[in-house]
Amino acid sequence: MSLIDTPKEIRAGEELDSHTLDGYLKQLFPDLQGEISIKQFPDGASNLTYLIAYKNREFILRRPPFGKIAKSAHNMIREAKVMQALKPVYSDIPKITVLHEAEQQAQQKVMDCDFYLMERLVGIIPRKNLPKELSLNKMQTRCLCTNVLDKLIALHQVDYKKAGLADLGKGAGYVKRQIDSWSKRYKQAITEDAASFEKVMAWLEYHMPEDVATCIIHNDFRFDNVVLNSENPLEVIGVLDWEMATLGDPLMDLGNSLAYWVQADDDDFFQALRRQPTHLDGMLTRHEVIDYYLDKMGLSCSNFAFYQVYGLFRLAAIVQQLYYRYFHGQTKDQRFADFVNAGKYLEKRCLALIVKYEQQVGS
Questions:
Q1: Residue at 243 is within a domain
Q2: Phi and psi (nearest 5°) for 86?
Q3: What gap in Å lies between CA 182 and CA 170, rounded to an integer?
Q4: How far apart are CA 19 and CA 25, in angstroms?
Q5: How many distinct structural domains can be found in the chain?
Q6: What CATH number is given to the structural domain containing 97?
């Protein structure tokens, strides 16, 4: 079995029109040889990712999910343009090769949505478990861990003004906007069987700090969104999934990442939710990640519990939005069927962090 991340057969209901797509691409790239082959990378729960392969060339195609979605969600054009703008100052981004805006190219309908194609970064994507053939000792695992974190730190250290990226987001006031926005989204997506998160939302609103800084943030930085060099698996050669990148508070970005950071001593339910190999011997714990990041960034923080609770709540809102679509029959993706229980579990984790924080400050 190859270490390189490979696609699978396409999930039912998520097939592309291969004949139309083939004709479109051969118009753009007359040198394409052979028949089109389309497979799908199945792990994402948001935008859909496909491998489009010919005898002499490969592309990665990204499109929104099928079914009814919010008008402002899954903006493929923005995602591609953000990647194009960042590429000169943050090289670990795949090159965009095709940007198709459906409304502007209505005379050449390829599919009923915007989509883009980018180069394929061939390598290892560290998903829930590393490939069996990839055996890392404790020291190597720690090195991999810090190398991945260093990519997040490098992104946060980009001078977005000098790079001409001041219009990437609204900047100052990011913390308040996120708490207000995710609280609203959660309430809009709530179902009769979901957790309420009322106490969590109230606590976050009451404890909101000022932004510590404004920088470029990824907003979904995880191990399974990086690509490793197959010849040197400790080297990160790419960072993927820029759908939610913007200007914002770096500690909010780290809080988002830590929501996915399941470590070796976490309970069985959290282990079952794990989607990256942060449980391995040698990986930093969440507290070690915080210390490592703050030291490298030259920042201090007296209440990181706020950012951890925010990250878990935001993840719960994302999970609930996906479950809402399943609950109302807008998608048949069985992966979302039990997401309501994941939301309930994440509420418990949030409440436990809040209790611990209140005990520490004596309130």
A1: yes
A2: -80, -25
A3: 16
A4: 10
A5: 2
A6: 3.30.200.20
Same domain, 206 and 97: no
Place of tokens 């309970």: 267
Q: Are residues 321 and 275 in the same domain?
A: yes
Which candidate, 45, 40, 64, places its Cα nearest to that of 339? 45
Mean per-residue pLDDT pooled into runs of 10, the chain (363 residues)? 78 91 95 96 80 96 77 76 93 94 74 92 92 92 98 97 90 96 96 96 97 96 95 96 94 98 97 96 98 96 95 97 90 87 97 94 70
- What integer pLDDT is reported at residue 70 of this predicted model? 53
Q: What's at 260, amino acid-wise?
A: Y
Count CB neighbours of 138 within 10 A. Answer: 11
Q: Is 89 part of a structural domain of the chain? A: yes
Structure letter (DSSP) for residue 232 = S
- Measured between alpha carbons, how far is 40 from 16 in angstroms, rounded to an integer? 10
Domain for residue 4, yes or no? Answer: no
| Cα-based distances in Å from 2 to 8, 39, 128, 353 | 14, 17, 16, 41
- The string of DSSP codes covering 153-167 is HHHHTS-TTTTT-TT
pLDDT at 1: 42
* Direct distance between the N- and C-terminal alpha carbons of the chain, in angstroms, rounded to an integer: 55
Model confidence, pTM: 0.91
Q: Which two tokens stand for residue 213?
A: 């800084």
pLDDT at 97: 95
CA–CA gap between residue 71 and residue 340 (Å, rounded): 24
Take residue 341 and report the two structure tokens written for it: 């229980």
Q: Which domain holds residue 52?
A: 18-118
Does residue 75 fall inside a structural domain? yes
